[in-house]
Specification:
Length: 476
């Protein structure tokens, strides 16, 4: 097997990947909180995780991939204060929390399909796995890691000695960060909820006078309530991956709180190491370096940032691949239009190859480009370099059939649907005619006519893009 190097947040270095069971690897990726659409920042993280999975498969691993759906317990503040985000969504839209979860889960699955992100082998919802979460909390209670306050059962982080091993921060700094959300009953600011009660002084006082009853709640040995956010990922990763706890991923915001707490409660409960590799994707920021977040009103969805504007969602995938996953990425209209051009250029280079059907098999591809491509992706998923190798290949003087076979092979990792794009049907005659007439109108500087034709082409379901050199028209 080739050597694959991945950056492990636990050790803060690139390490050679070694699976627990030979060539079988377990992958757990923290899934969406389904109270709203995923924004393109979230989607950047899922593209990074998809690339990781494809790279593992390309290297010959059999992957078992589990992704959770957070449909309860993620509170407005990551530190267990504020309202459950699902209940917030329910109020906002006048629907039940269950309907909100169902609706946005479906929307999320639609989004990832449009981005060519392969679905996990196992989807698991927090609400479908409540008994497993309760069992894990019971274990922690037996081992003396928990305490009770008026609003829930908490994990005592001072009892877990390696609490800072993932964040590499000083405990004091983590505590300082956690102090933002004040809860006078917590023994340490970093302590976190394992189970929250639906009512204060459980039972029976409602949280506040006149407060509505929670929609999502369950019986437990501690009283009616709901699980904290972190416990779901510990319980479900252990349930579905068993002992294959190889790689666990998320965005960088998960390092200091969510993943740190997952490690603490899992290792405290089992006495064993919880996941060998922890990988984190950097943020997508909007211009000026501000993080895109669902809780801010600055978030862009796949629909409003791309699809409505006639931009192929795979142009966003291409943009994401152009930046290394550990570097922050800045979103701008200009950047996405550049990516769209880059992707179309790549498709056109392949369309121009003299053969469109290569009989060569993967094992027949034996050239330096393949070696360089593998070296790039196996160096901690260096996708910008991998794209550069694909360009070098297409510009090289290798026979066309070999170029085609190699680029299609690379696309197993890149996921840009190159095969689909080259076999796409050409423009229908009536659209071709409109394009031709518009070109003429532009040359004659008849802008009114050219604008009208543009509208007509767009109404027929095609996107029009004018660059300095040419007009590009493609199916929306
Ligand atoms: P959530 O739906 O909020 O639970 O987040 C889903 C995933 O998106 C998690 O892995 C987060 O770490 C990640 N994430 C959140 N905001 C951003 C962002 N602006 N850029 C990249 N990833 C993000
Ligand atoms: Zn998680």
């Amino acid at each position: 097997m080739n050597k694959l190097y991945l950056y492990n947040t636990l050790t803060r270095q690139k390490e050679e990947f070694k699976a627990i069971k030979n060539n079988e690897a377990g992958l757990y990726t923290c899934g969406p909180t389904v109270y709203n659409y995923a924004h393109i920042g979230n989607l950047r993280s899922y593209i990074f995780e998809d690339i990781l999975k494809r790279v593992l498969i390309y290297n010959g691993y059999n992957i078992k991939h589990v992704m959770n759906i957070t449909d309860v317990g993620h509170l407005a503040g990551d530190m267990d204060m504020g309202e459950d985000k699902l209940e917030v969504g329910a109020k906002r839209e006048g629907k039940s929390a269950w309907d909100i979860a169902k609706f946005y889960e479906k929307a999320f699955k639609g989004d990832i399909a449009k981005l060519n992100i392969a679905p996990p082998d196992i989807w698991c919802r927090a609400t479908d796995n409540i008994p497993e979460q309760i069992d894990l909390i019971k274990k922690l209670e037996e081992r003396g890691y928990t305490y009770k306050t008026s609003d829930g059962i908490y994990f005592d982080t001072s009892k877990f000695k390696d609490y800072t091993k993932l964040s590499h921060q000083k405990l004091e700094d983590l505590r300082e960060g956690a102090r933002v959300e004040k809860n006078p009953e917590k023994k340490n600011p970093t302590d976190f909820a394992l189970w929250k009660f639906s009512y204060l002084n459980n039972p029976p006082t409602p949280i506040s006078a006149g407060a509505k009853k929670r929609q999502m709640e369950w019986n437990s040995p501690w009283g009616v309530g709901f699980p904290g956010w972190h416990i779901e990922c510990s319980a479900m990763s252990m349930k579905f991956l068993g002992s294959q706890l190889d790689i666990h991923c998320g965005g960088v915001d998960h390092i200091n709180v969510h993943h740190t707490n997952e490690i603490a409660q899992s290792e405290a409960a089992t006495g064993k190491k919880f996941f060998n590799y922890w990988m984190h994707g950097a943020f997508l920021n909007i211009a000026g370096g501000k993080k895109m977040a669902k809780s801010e009103e600055n978030f862009l969805t796949l629909e409003n940032a791309l699809i409505k504007k006639g931009i192929n969602p795979l142009a966003f995938r291409y943009a994401v691949l152009s930046v290394h996953y550990r570097k922050p990425m800045e979103w701008s209209e200009e950047a996405i239009l550049n990516a769209q051009r880059g992707l179309e250029h790549l498709y056109n280079q392949v369309r121009k190859l003299k053969t469109q059907n290569s009989k060569l098999k993967t094992q027949d591809i034996d050239n330096n480009f393949k070696i360089n491509f593998l070296a790039a992706i196996n160096d901690d998923l260096n996708t910008p370099q991998a794209l550069a190798v694909a360009q070098e290949l297409l510009k090289s003087n290798l026979p066309d059939e070999e170029k085609l076979a190699a680029v299609l092979d690379f696309d197993k990792v890149l996921g840009l649907n190159i095969a689909g794009a080259i076999h796409e049907s050409p423009l229908p005659d009536e659209i071709k005619k409109m394009v031709h007439n518009r070109q003429k109108a532009k040359e004659e500087k008849n802008f009114e006519k050219s604008d009208k034709l543009r509208e007509e082409i767009e109404k027929s379901g095609y996107a029009v893009e004018d660059t300095k050199e040419e007009m590009r028209v493609f199916k929306k």
